[in-house]
Amino acid sequence: MPAQTRLFLCLKDNFGVLLHDPESGATAAIDAPEAAPIEAALKATGWRLSDILVTHHHADHTGGIAELKQRHRCRVVAPHGEAARIPLVDATVRENDEVQVGSLRGRVLETPGHTAGHISYVFPADKLAFVGDTLFSIGCGRVIEGTPEMMWQSLLKLRALPDDTRPRIYQGQCRLRQNGRTRQCRAARARDRGRETSRREGADHPVDHGRGKGGKPVSARGRSGGGEIGRACGQPGVEGVRGNPRAQEQILTRTRSNRIANSCPCPPLRAGRTRRRSH
What we know:
Blueprint: E1 4-10, E2 14-20, E3 27-30, H1 35-45, E4 51-53, H2 59-62, H3 65-72, E5 75-79, E6 91-93, E7 98-101, E8 104-110, E9 119-123, E10 128-132, E11 135-136, E12 139-140, H4 148-159, E13 168-171, H5 176-180, H6 183-191, H7 195-203, E14 207-208, E15 213-214, E16 218-219, H8 228-232, H9 235-241, H10 245-252
Parallel strand pairs: 3-4, 4-5, 5-6, 10-13
Antiparallel strand pairs: 1-2, 2-3, 7-8, 8-9, 9-10, 11-12, 13-16, 14-15
């Protein structure tokens, strides 16, 4: 049976996600920003929490772990390199390790940059990828503990996911409105030949903050050859800045104030179906 997901808001602009295996009844929370919205989603679906899959150690992704674990006695899986900074970890994982949620099988990709030990979870058979704060709509996460080169390689790794899986990308946060207003993003969209696609993607915003509603995952690759990985690593951009840390720094960390418009100057590439970005 195919995996089921539920996307909802946590904190101010974080996404919470539940991944459910109908066959076994197992359910994983991808990160745990806070307990209450996760409990509400579990109640609404009737699912039981069996696992928490953590992408990185930041408090806005781990703040609900202790309360959830105490109530549900769930397993906490975390990146090996950050386990010491994450509460109540039961298992640690590294690159290419397998992760199971009931009968669902995923694998770990190490995607450092935002933090030094950040990881993503990919479930190929279900065409799902949970990327935390590595990739957002209209860009990537801030480079805080890593380097621009590390983030660049992480984005390329996500871009390299096989075309036949075309994963739905679940991001950890959404700051589309702030990033979408940047001069670089406006200029990129104006140059984009697929303006109708851009408008459709903008209208299909993954979350309505004004109404407090969660929406849909972003896509890695859009119909027109665009998509979030494309916007983060536009075709000319990838080759043009390879091996040039200064150019990467300019693209990946245009501002350090959560208004990164990473990749906005680059035309889109391709990678699953899309929407927009944050953090």
